Structure formats: C-alpha cells, structure tokens
Amino acid sequence: MKTKWILPGLLTLAFALAALAVTGCSKSDDHSGHAHQYTCPMKEHSDVVSDKPDNCPKCGMKLVEKR
Asked: What's the mean pLDDT in 46-60?
C-alpha cells in the first residue's frame, strides 16, 4: 500500500522546505553574521567609520574595509 506513505512524505517535504527557507536564504554576502565596517586608510582619520564603502569626508580617499 503506497498510500500510507503519502502523508508522512508530504510532512517531511514540508519540514525540509521550511528549514531551507529559514536557514538557506540570506540577503547578506557575509556569512559570518558580522556587518562590514569601512574606515579611512590615513592614521589621522581613523575615527571615520562607515558601514558601506564610501569616501572619507575629511580627505576624500576611498574608505577601506576594517579587518
């Protein structure tokens, strides 16, 4: 009787799809969960920090990613 496996199979499939939707989808390129921070490469402007790539408002240099 193949019909007795339909309901458990559908429930397993639904659970697997729900788990994939919760854990597999992410808008971020960074998989570590940490946001990137960018700062000016000049020591004098180390107080300039941004969460996106931009230019330093003090000297105009391109901000680099903090490591």
From this structure: 92
Tokens (6 digits) for 9: 């199979």
Cα–Cα distance between 65 and 53 in angstroms, integer?
8
> Which candidate, 28, 48, 26, 30, places its Cα nearest to that of 39?
48
The residues near 35 (Cβ < 8 Å, ≥ 6 apart) are: 51
**From residue 65, how far is each of 23, 27, 29, 43, 59 by CA, in Å?**
27, 19, 14, 14, 17
To which H or E segment does residue 38 belong? Answer: strand 38-39
The token duo for 28 is: 């971020």
Q: What is the pTM of this model?
A: 0.49
